# Entry
Amino acid sequence: MTETASLDSAALIALEDRYHVPVYAKLPMVLVRGSGSWVWDADGRKYLDLYGGHCVASLGHCHPRVVAAIQRQAETLLFYSNVVYNDARAAACERLVALVPPELRRVFLCNSGTEANETALKIARKHTGRQRVIALREGFHGRTLGSLGVTGLPGLVDPSYPVAAACDFVPFGDLHAVADLIGSETAAVMLEPIPSMGGIRCAPDAYYQGLRDLCDEHGALLVFDEVQTGFGRTGTPFFGDGVGVQPDVITGAKGAAGGMPAGVVFVRDTLSAAMNAGDQGTTFGGGPLACAALAVVAEVLLSDELPRHALEREAQLRDALCDMSGLRGVSGKGLLLGLDLDQPAKPIIAKLRDAGFLVGGGKDPQQIRLMPPLTITHDELQLFSNALGMLLA
Ligand SMILES: Cc1ncc(COP(=O)(O)O)c(C=O)c1O
# Structure
């Protein structure tokens, strides 16, 4: 066996590539350590992480309270499944529902975003007795078959490979398109309230109210996939709070547990009542270790007012970038932001990386995606805007 501690980046990359199925287009870097908004590579180089470990490091990397909670839990009980009750799970459920309005205070705990979305689809179909879903052309909901079936983003579904859902796709922001399709066979309208991978964009608040009204009129469920927008990222605990529209189901993952794998589905009481033992399940979902982290993240989000902090950092960044040459605008909300360039984003993303800043790209070839820790500081963000200004000048 290779002793990895003595290997440099090139050797570690070669080792991983030799064994892992090559499904990821990885950056040629090996990250080995993180703290707050920063990560370090195997060669000791430091990067400001505005990609947030793929929108996961909501409290920054290795937040001391998350680390302490999982250390404590690991020494107490690493795992037991949902076949029994558990103190960490009970605590996590209570803290999680403190983030949502009273009518959504039922949770199902799972392991990932796609599993949360599979659950939402199951609940919608079971509750309505209908099959069809309306979803976004630019939406992304995960890689398992049910979630892929409602993923409109091109290039993710192999056309020769059948996916599960009966789904119609509509453009983001187009209420008329939903109105034309919704009917007595529609189980759910499901969307990322701000599409992310498909290109970060916002719609007017009236769009979300319009979706709510159409769903109510036709007896369909409104499902917000908040895997990226949720847990404080858009300035409120969940997106609906900011636009005054509550869906019937919210799915969350990524930042939910500050780096531990976890998915959460929030549902209305009435929907929960329609689910029976055996209707859904997962071995690892709601495990004690993940629950210890979920509970801490929910607590810190509220105690440290991270949603408000996200809005302040957004305002700072918009201010700093408003007249920057090479930039057409800033899309998104809170700390889920798209920087719309007047040129291809890929070379700028690579130059930023060389300068020590990690940012994301997406399907929009001229957009840089930012999803930094919600704890990112004023000075850290300023470092980034200064660097971007110099690169685009
Ligand atoms: C909006 C959205 N939904 C669902 C998923 C799938 O989450 P996971 O990779 O945890 O299955 C993602 C992942 O990027 C996502 O961005």
About this structure: The two ends are 49 Å apart (CA to CA). The chain is about 40% helix and 15% strand. The first helix runs from residue 9 to 19.
